[in-house]
Structure formats: C-alpha cells, structure tokens
Amino acid sequence: MSIKIALAGNPNCGKTTLFNALTGSNQFVGNWPGVTVEKKEGKLKGHKDITIVDLPGIYSLSPYTLEEVVARNYLINEKPDAIINIVDGTNIERNLYLSTQLMELGIPVVMAINMMDVVHKSGDKIYINELSKKLGCEVVEISALKGTGIKEASEKAVKLAKEKNKSIPIHEFTPVLESVLNSVEAKIGFDVSEEQRRFFAIKLLEKDEKILSQMKQVPNIEEEINYIENEMDDDTESIITNERYLYISSIIKDCYKKTNKEKMSVS
Ligand code: BGO
To answer: Fewest CB within 10 A of the end CB: N or C in the chain?
Structure first.
C-alpha cells in the first residue's frame, strides 16, 4: 500500500529542515503543474512506499497567493492520507490560523510543534496534551534542527494514514454560523465527498470564487449569506476570520504560558 503524507506550514516554520530530516537524500524536485512554484517529494527514510510531499509555505488556505492555491488544490484533489502540520513553537498563535483550516479538510492531521529547543530555552511552556484536546488532533513536540521528536511525528502520521479514518474537525463556530454552515453543506452535491463538504461550505460562505472551479454543481447560497450578514452585521469572510481568531485566543489562553522575563529578573 503506498501512502502520501503532506507537510504543511507557514513560511519559515522549519518545513525544509523537517523535510530533509525525514527524507534524507531521497528527494525529487520539480515544479507544481503549470506554475513555477517548487514541488519537492521524497521517500520517508526506510520506507519505499511512503512519500512525503512538501507543500509551499503558506499562512492560510484562502486563495490569494499562488502558493495558497497550489497547496489547497493539492490537498483537495490529491487527498493525501495524512498531513503533518509544522507549527513554529516560538510563534504559535500566528501559525494556528492555518492549522484551524487544515483540520477542516477531512484529512487526519498530526501537529508537529517545531523549534522546541528554542521554546525550552526561553522558559515558555506549551501544554501539548491540552492543545491536542482543544484542537482534536495529535500534537508532538519536535526540533527539526536537532532531530528530536521527528520519528514520533512521522510514525503518528503513518499510523493515521494507514487507519484511513475520515477526520472530523472538533471546532464549532458560533451557533448561528454553524446552523448556516449546515444548511450550505446540505446544498452541496455528491460531487464533493462527504468529509470535504464542511471545507467547501466554509469557502462558499466566504464567497471564495476559486472554489467554484472545483465543483460540478454550484449551489445557490445567497439566502444563507444574506441571513448571516444581517444577523452578525459583517461580511461573511470577516465573520469567519474573526471566529477563527476567537478560537485561537481561547486555545492560547489555556495551552501556552509565556515566561515573564522582566518580572523574573526583578525578583
Ligand atoms: C536558518 N530549531 C531551531 N533552533 N532552528 C530551526 C529548527 C529548530 O527546530 N527548525 C528549523 N530551524 P527552514 P521553511 C538560519 O536558515 O527549514 C531554522 O521556510 C540561518 N540561515 O535552520 O528553512 C533553520 O522551509 C542563519 O534557519 O524553514 C532555518 O519552513 C541564522 O529555522 C530557519 C539562523 O527553517 C527556517 C538561522 C542562513
């Protein structure tokens, strides 16, 4: 059985370092079809049947940059068996914005919190069990540079990939938005697989025109958009973005403690 695992993360999160550590010299470099964005694939060390696909570094799965479009089209169309989401542990709040969207694709995610050597040195604390519970995915601490935790992260991803379970996101938006999302999801046809319908519903509600080219039947959701924009007095894209930031703030509040260095040096 051949398995594909995608590496996804923000620019500068350490993705190249992790990709090199996982694949060694066993790499193929080319371009993504039709665009001059570099595509790197490699075999997981010691596993001829497991391919690691390095996605472009991105901040979001919105369709504003070529890199975002390439990454999300790959995730939607090729449906890798698992995603390793690399998160820069020194910049966790910002990185979680992409993570919340990756969880909505119906693909199992392992979160690899990188730069943990730097985080440990700073004295900051990331409570990974709590983080894992709040996000509804496996979380592993790694240092791609030092090579710590990367075997555990890849083994967890391989295990999830082999289990082939459809992944269901645990994050719920505010109830009124959830009910509108449910109604949009119900309008999406069978051309979109069940586990991807939530992602498509969110993108349709965000008025993301590029998602339409991925659908054979495009539902009319004008009524839902008007309703939620009236109810929440904002445009749908901002509503959804704000909701994500609220979710991320609640996660950070419970799962991350910054060392107050100034206070320590005074006492
Ligand atoms: C430079 N720990 C530490 N401390 N650094 C890490 C880790 C880690 O776990 N992982 C990656 N880095 P990329 P993207 C650099 O290149 O893999 C470092 O964009 C430098 N270069 O070594 O390139 C990594 O692919 C000069 O740092 O990220 C790299 O996602 C001085 O994070 C940077 C200092 O990693 C980005 C660092 C000339």
So the answer is: C
Q: Report pLDDT digits (tens) over 190-244.
A: 999 999 999 999 999 999 999 998 999 999 999 999 999 999 999 999 999 999 9
Domains along the sequence of the chain with CATH: 3-163 (3.40.50.300), 175-253 (1.10.287.1770)
As a whole number of angstroms, the distance between CA 128 and CA 153 comes to 13
3-state secondary structure of 28: strand
Residues 52 and 6: their CA atoms lie apart, in Å, by: 6
Beta-carbon contacts of residue 165 (< 8 Å; ≥ 6 apart): 108
CA angle 24, 85, 193 (to 5 degrees): 115
List b or e across 126-136, with b for residues whose CB sees 16 or more CB atoms inside 10 angstroms.
bebeebbebbe
The pair of three-digit structure tokens given for residue 163, joined into one six-digit string: 């289990």
Ligand 1 atom 11 nearest Cα: 14
At 112, phi and psi to the nearest 5?
-105, 110
In angstroms, the CA 232 to CA 212 distance is 25
What's the sign of the alpha-carbon dihedral 225, 226, 232, 238? Answer: positive
| DSSP label at residue 157 | H
- Counted residue by residue, the chain has a size of 267
Read off the tokens for 160: 């999830």
Tell me how far the alpha carbon of residue 251 lies from the centroid of ligand 1, in angstroms: 26
ipTM of the complex: 0.97
pTM of the predicted protein model: 0.95
205 in Cβ contact with 180 (< 8 Å): yes
